[in-house]
Amino acid sequence: MFLNRPIRIGLGLIAALALSACGLNAQTFPTQIVAVPTVPTNTLAPLLTMTPRFTATPIPTSTLIPTNTLPPTETPFIPTETATPTPTPTVLVRGAVNNRNASVRLRAGPGTEYDTLRTVPSGASLFVIGISSDLLWYNVVLEDGTEGWILGELVTVPERTAVPVFATAELTARAAMPRAAIDLPTLAPTIPARAPTFTDILAYCDLPAFRAEANKTFRPNQNLSIYWTWYARTVEQIQDHLDAATYEVQLERREGDAWQVVRKLEDYNNYRTALTRAPNGRPEVRWFVPIGTLETGEYRVNYRLTWSRRIEDGDSSFGPGGAEEINTGTCVFRVR
């Protein structure tokens, strides 16, 4: 196939232009090397990760360590009172073996089935700790510290309502267990102040001023006490009397034409009341010494008071060199 002439001319022109462009006919220039400054590449700097530096490896303090939780032994502990209960103090109430028998049995427990520890003479002083719930047996401590049980009707207690009541089972348990020694008072305690009753015998009732108290008659089953008093104008004079006075009081029983001593009330200071007021309003102290029940017969109280030095009561003087050096009196009564 043949090309048209115009087309052949056009192709020749295009070829010429192409050769011109390739520099075949172009002007040559000296070659110049230009140093092109190096442009920093757009290389990205290391990317900061979004992971926090301090959380990549957990910091120990961010996790609570065991020492931050106090162990139980380090927690302050204040014991409560119920943790170690305070023992209830032993109540001691003064009493005495009455004269119903010449002597009584001190037993190892609250009942006749318990062994006899020893016998206790009538009139002996003792301390009562408690009484069984059936009110039959006293838990007592003798003055030498021996503890045991005595039948209640054989013990005289001036203030029976002050004696704690124990369950019989508790007393039985005490009888089977060793018991710690009880500290007995070293000084004679005082008893609550009270007024005399019919079963209280005034030690000097035969004196004319006290005839209303004379010639009393009692039954064999009545618990009796012998009492006397002392008053003064001031409390200081009362104390002065107590410091200097000595009472010698004894109970006697008529045997034919003679009086036989039944008991000496040598423990009278164990039965002195707290300070009270006499009917005349003056300060006064009283003594109520229990003697228990007595057999039928005629009895007499023999009373004698002396002082180691001269004292005053606000009205008179007593003791050596005083207006009255010795104070005496008697009181006769009967039991039938």
Automatic annotation (TrEMBL):
It holds the Pfam family SH3_3. The keyword Transmembrane helix does not apply. The lineage of its organism: Bacteria, Bacillati, Chloroflexota, Candidatus Thermofontia, Candidatus Thermofonsia Clade 1. InterPro entries: SH3-like_bac-type (IPR003646). It comes from the Bacteria. It comes from Candidatus Thermofonsia Clade 1 bacterium. The keyword NAD does not apply. Residues 88-159 form the SH3b domain. Residues 1-26 form the signal peptide. Keywords: Signal. Coiled coil: none annotated. Transmembrane segments: none annotated. SMART domains: SH3b (SM00287). This is SH3b domain-containing protein.
